Amino acid sequence: MARQHNHLAGHGLETPTTIGVGIRVNGRITGEEDLHVEGRVEGAVVLSRTLHVGASGIVAADVEAQDVVVHGLIMGNVTANGCVTLHAGARVVGDISAPRFIVADGAAFRGRVAMGESSDARRSVASTAVAARPAARGAGSVRTSSSRPASSSAVLPRAAKAATERKAAENSQRQSAARDPASKQPDDDVTVVVRHPAVGEVEAGGRATVGDKSPQGAAPKKKKIAPVARIPKPGKRRVTRR
Amino acid sequence: MANTVIGTTIVIDGEITGDEDLLVRGTIKGRVAMSENIVVEDGGTLEANVEAGVITIHGRVTGDIHATQRAELKPTSRVVGDIRAPRILIADGASFKGSVDMDG
């Protein structure tokens, strides 16, 4: 039985942090270097560099990193400041929030994609390169490039003409992209209109947070003016009984 | 050579289980249960209860150590916690506070 000694360390070569195949981590990982996951990680991952999920890697966690490169499985939301890349064989279930998103042919993805404003032209080039390949293949497993044109066409006008030629391929594919255009909005311009029965008028453009309907609903109940009453017109009224 | 390396800036707060070798250069809080070897390097910190085959410590460990084969405390190690192992090696320079149980 050999002593454990990492002989690479003496040469100044840093082996990146690796979670090996037989390892299971249940908890929160934070760090400021690259992380390679070949085993199983559950919980949360927060990195300031790149997360690599290997082909045998399973990450059942919400991920925040600079870049994310996926060859394996991620079940959880992914937030990246740089680029999220799904290679062939990748399986991602969860929402992705990143300014750049690359999906290779053969990757499977289910979830929402939210991309911020990006001014570099590389994304449109990458999207046309990705789209060329699935057009040649028949329908079958999930074509994740369908989520890509939906997102890029919403944000980049230049990719619009590339998107039109992908639309034919899109129609025969899965519905995961169908949700995307409806829910896609540029991140910094999100306007959520909250309609609550206690609130008579509708507030628009103010709050950008979703999901705080109940506190909002409770407070206006006390402070706000009573909702505008429907004054029935004078005259005959038909009373409907239910 | 270890397959699993926890780098110097990595902090893991939770539980690690597996049947591989583990090389710790960062920080682990929680619990570690491996069936093979664990090496805590000089900059590594383990605030966890550890169970493994052979445990070799060059860094800091705060927590109980349970080795099924051997526990080694190297000269730069600082250990606070109980050690349970059938064989123990504490090198000159190691700092250790806790109890030792070699019944395992």
Describe the structure.
- The complex is a heterodimer of chains A (242) and B (104).
- Chain A is of the alpha/beta class.
- Chain A has helices at residues 122-136, 147-155, 160-171, 176-183, 213-223, and strands at 17-19, 23-31, 35-37, 40-47, 50-53, 58-65, 67-70, 73-75, 78-80, 83-86, 91-93, 96-97, 100-103, 108-110, 113-114.
- In chain A, the strands form two sheets. In chain A, strands 2, 4, 6, 8, 9, 11, 12, 14 and 15 form a nine-stranded parallel beta sheet that branches. Chain A has a six-stranded parallel beta sheet with strand order 1-3-5-7-10-13.
- Mean pLDDT of chain A is 68; it is low at 1-13, 118-185 and 201-221.
- Chain B has 104 residues and is an all-beta fold.
- In chain B, strands 1, 2, 3, 4, 5, 6, 7, 8, 9, 10, 11, 12 and 13 form a 13-stranded parallel beta sheet that branches.
- The mean pLDDT of chain B is 89.
- Classes of the chains: A alpha/beta (242), B mainly beta (104).
- Strand 2 of chain A pairs antiparallel with strand 2 (11-18) of chain B, so a sheet runs across the interface.
Instruction: Note the quaternary state here.
Output: heterodimer
**Mind describing the biggest β-sheet of chain A?**
9 strands, parallel
**What's the overall geometry of chain A?**
elongated
Number of helices of chain B: 0
Q: Distance between the terminal alpha carbons of chain A, to the nearest Å?
A: 82 Å
Roughly what percent helix of chain B? under 10%
Total count of strands of chain A? 15
What string, H for helix and E for strand, traces the elements of chain A in order? EEEEEEEEEEEEEEEHHHHH
Q: Outline of chain B, from the CA principal axes? A: globular
* pLDDT averaged over residues of chain A: 68
Compute the average pLDDT of chain B.
89
Largest sheet of chain B: 13 strands, parallel
Please report the distance between the alpha carbons of the first and last residues of chain B. 27 Å
The largest inter-chain interface, given as chain pair and residues per side, is: A-B, 32 and 31 residues
What percent strand of chain B? over 45%
Cα gyration radius of chain B (Å):
12 Å
